[in-house]
Description:
This protein is mostly helical. The chain is about 65% helix and about 0% strand.
Amino acid sequence: MPKVADFRNTAFNRVSLDASGKDLGRKVYWKLYAIENLVRILIHSILTAQIGGDWWTTAADKALQGQVISRMADYRKRPWHSRPGKHEVYYIFLSDLNKIITPHSHLFKPHIPDIDTWIARIEEIRLPRNIVGHMNWLETVDRNRIDVFYADLQHLVAQLATDPTLTLTIP
């Protein structure tokens, strides 16, 4: 398969634009989808084990809770649209996920001893994730960063799946 080039660096051509979008979706977007949702599952599972099922009201700061209440209200006003999910954790962004993990890192350490490294790595992919989320092209270094993060996160989840003190559950 020939290498796909960023459509923005050529004269307008609908075929090039389509090829760019398909390449981005096939190689990057699905990994970001998996990463964000795996991080949500890890947060939910670990905080449920450490705090309990109502972890959201304890672990999310009041400002974040307020933002989520507002976002959920927007969806309730437009019931014909799809909703992000049932749990509040689906109404927050990747950067917000770190806002939950960071102040509660001590609760993650029994399961993920190097949680501070993971917090930094989540922050490293935040900007490339935003590029993809806004349907733009990534440089090779950012694609590679996402590939490595995805592979490492898969390994972490496999390890955590064998932790007898933790049940991975979907929020």
